[in-house]
Design brief:
alpha/beta, VC0802-like, Rossmann fold, seven-stranded mixed beta sheet, 12 helices, 16 strands, 33% helix
Length: 413
Amino acid sequence: MKTCEIVVPCHFGLEAITKKEIIDLGYDITEVTDGRVSFTGDADAIARANVFLRTTERILLKVGSFHAETFEELFQATKALPWEEYIPKDGSFWVTKASSIKSKLFSTRDIQSVMKKAMVVRLGEYYGVSSFEEHGAKYPIRVFALKDEFMVCLDTSGESLHKRGYRLKQGLAPITETLAAALIMLSGWRDDRPFVDPMCGSGTFPIEAAMMAAHIAPGMDRAFTSEAWTNLIDRKLWYNAVEEANDLVDRHLLETGYNAFDKKVDIQGYDIDPEVIQVARENAERAGVDKLVHLQVRDVADMSHGGKHGYIITNPPYGERIEDKRNLPMLYTELREAYQSLDPSWNMHIITAWEDAVKYLGRADRNRKIYNGMMKTYFYSYDGWKRARRMDDAKTGALRPAGKDRSGRMQRK
């Protein structure tokens, strides 16, 4: 396959994290837009991206883009794309999903139907047939329309990449594996620092942290739709990607719990529900990190840890689906008090959709808006070094040098 443009959807607000992942994988970024990062690559890049990227839902191969305001324009523009370069005569093809935002063509069902007809005409003319049995490999197409500009892609992943294969069971309101991985990366956690999720549910945060620590690629044990695209991607490229992933796994860490610097990796998850902790243990075992993650039944109010420079990363209830909002003030207050009982060097990062969270958690050092699907959430960060400095200042009564606030006025810190 020649070099092409590969499109990687990601969570709104976390584009920089996905961008860094792609750069670390060795590829050049071509564009970053809201909820999407694009880069150039070949068939090998498609295989490696599916196996290694942690923060995206799927890997898309861009077929083309065009402007269309009428269904006739949509038909002709779709027909003009070189479908025969991607889809063989026996291929099964359809528009699996279309999205339309601020476009004159807003009926996604009609968009899907018109584009399918245009593809049949183009491929029929090329292969000299009037109909297709479509009994071969599957070639699902995804279409994105924004202000009458259409982007057409082949979905190389199939099932969403958040489905790593380890979470067969889950709690009532789980966070996706891809979002959990992105937030861990955003937090700045490293495997030489303690990690605690005091409301871990089915264990997604601790398991993703452990997989990162052990360099376990998220897609090394699952299948992808484009593995059957032998006309585009040689099978050996998939074998090479998985072999590369296997070579990178830190088996010493998985067996001993100690990293390359001979430091014990400390990853813990708590939950008050014994049944959900059992689910988390089963998930950790399937992920291959059960010896690396310590999971136990414990109330958030009983959270304790004797270490320093640790990280709390958690997804507490926020009353939309599983908790009555009347219970949330006490829960968030207990979380704040548990955090305050730890060494001042600890950091805390919380994702929640509850608008009143900071009333009970206290003012955050940073707040980032992140869209979890269509739901707006907040990622609150509490920095340990700032907390420790504030506590030192309170003890000594020290005033720090004057600086400027956001309005430009001088103030004491």
